[in-house]
Amino acid sequence: MSSILKENMNFDDTFWIATTAMRLNRSHPSVARDRLWRIQFTLIFILTLSCLIFLLYSVFFHDIQYGLFTDASKNAIMIIVAFTITYKYYILVCNQDTLTELIRIVNEDYKLAKEFCEEEQHIVLHYSKRGFNVCLYWFISACSTSAIFPLKAFILMGKSYMAGKFELVPMFELTYPWILEDYKNVHVVFIMLFGMTLFFDVYATSMYVGFDPIVPIFLLHLCGQIEILNLRMSKMFSTSNNSDETIRNNLKEIITKLQDIYKFIEIIKTYFTVLYEFIMKTTTFLLPLNAFQVTQSLRNGEINLEFIGFFTAVILHFFIPCYYSDLLMETGEKFRQAIYSCGWEKHSDKRALRTILFMLTRAIKPIVISTIFCAICLDTFAGMCRESYSIFNLMNAAFT
């Protein structure tokens, strides 16, 4: 049997963009949690915490007190980002064994797929390519958004230098505690503060590129596995030469694989439910905050490139898991229809028919991941957008 899948096809090589980013920030589940990792993690945590403290100080002790609500909303966005990436790192560290097991299951499915027929191998390859495209979307979105902040600062400093009036331009417009505020334009202090914010920018990028494609990749892989079962189910009773025993064995294999898929989904729900509730809530506030930044800039006759790109990335942040969870639910519904229309009514084996009935009953329950209170799907995304728009209107009425 010819194979259209690569002989050494595995998770890390197929989705190398995400796994490389996780290795760079030392969050990949295969990275040993040894002394070297603890030192690296401590440095990452200290620099991120320092940046978060300065952001909080600027918002609550300067921007809000002086009525600078545009600056306050801008820095509030970065505060939410800091909390989000820290929470994601926490999930990757605490659930190292679970993620390793999920990746092992995917690799095992790839290994088994090399023995499938070409049609089924095409399905596996199709969904693995779609998973890689998710990695590519996040790489382009996160890198282009984060690169604008340092590029803008360097360009403005270059323009001031060419004009003969060199000025230091920070990445983030922060107000520091008085000790640093008085010396923030001293070259050594400026370089240290700029390096800290640049590190935060790069670290946040690596977390979004590395972490956010993971669950959509798993969901797409499950879609492929269900579509293969869909194909097998549609052929179950099409061949009259199959004996009752052969049909029972084929049904048993399908049910065994279905149970593995249901367990896989339950693992995702167990470890990512709270995260997606958190993402949904933070996105509800990030969208209006970003939109407020963009509209305020336009009112001042400026174009805020940083937050235009950030606005797109924020939408992707919740849209992508909603879209692929909705796709998983749709694929599960197609499988239910395939069970019903497989031709069971022409078969007389009662054991096989009881198995079909059991599968139909179980398939009534949608295959979907969820937050604490609702399923993650496109309807949920639409509801989140409506809530964000209401907050945006309230901000416009209050601060303009």
Residues in helices, as a percent range: over 70%
Largest sheet report: none
Helical stretch count? 13
How many β-strand stretches?
A: 0
Structural Rg: 25 Å
End-to-end Cα distance: 68 Å
Q: How many separate structural domains?
A: 1
What letter string, H or E per element, gives the SSE order?
HHHHHHHHHHHHH
Q: What labels would you give this structure?
A:
400 residues, mainly alpha, elongated
Short description:
This protein has 400 residues and is an all-alpha fold. It has helices at residues 11-14, 16-24, 35-63, 69-94, 96-113, 118-162, 178-181, 187-211, 214-234, 244-299, 305-340, 350-363, 378-399.
Structural account:
By secondary structure, the protein is an all-alpha fold. It has one domain (11-399). It contains 13 helices and no strands. It is elongated and about 85 Å long.
